[in-house]
Amino acid sequence: MSAELVSSRSRRESIADAGIRIISRDGVRALTHRAVDREAQLPQGSTSYHAKTRAALLELIVDVLTSRTKLDTEALGTDLNTEFADEDRPTVDQLAALLAALVDTLTARQDDMRARYALILELNDVPDLRQKLIDQSDVNAAARLVATRALAKTGLPDWGAHVDELLSLTDSLVFYRTAVNPTVDLQSILARYLRGATHA
């Protein structure tokens, strides 16, 4: 890969990071090319060079957000397969700990998560872009795969019926941790849900 291409990718990620910080701190409507140049400490016009329109800038930011979350989610899938062989059954507490670790990882990126929720609310008029942040996305596909593998390993009866519930719960916990209570006991909540599903 050429140094020029690496530099271009690095500059685009710096622009996206600056945009994320602006959205997290000041809201989507504060996002402008000039504001991003200032936030990223780039020469005026740099953002416009890499994202000519506001729509292109929003798309760049959404792509960076979803890429990071997808990587975090896939890492959980790798941890699950590493810690538990196909014949192993994790306990409820072990599985809850793994899922809580994913929520911890996501909410550690507070600016990213705050920007994500702000964009979900603001992008109603850009449905294709909004879908990348919610259910019809690579992130959702990765999360669904992880949830499916995790529940299958537990040996729960009719475990497939709980995939959507578990996805909704973890996403809700990310929001609650980010916006309401950063100290909520994730593992306890997840373990209670899994125990309830076990006895459903």
TrEMBL record:
Top-level lineage group: Bacteria
Protein name: TetR family transcriptional regulator
Domain named Tetracyclin repressor-like C-terminal group: residues: 91-196
Pfam families xref list: TetR_C_31 (PF17940)
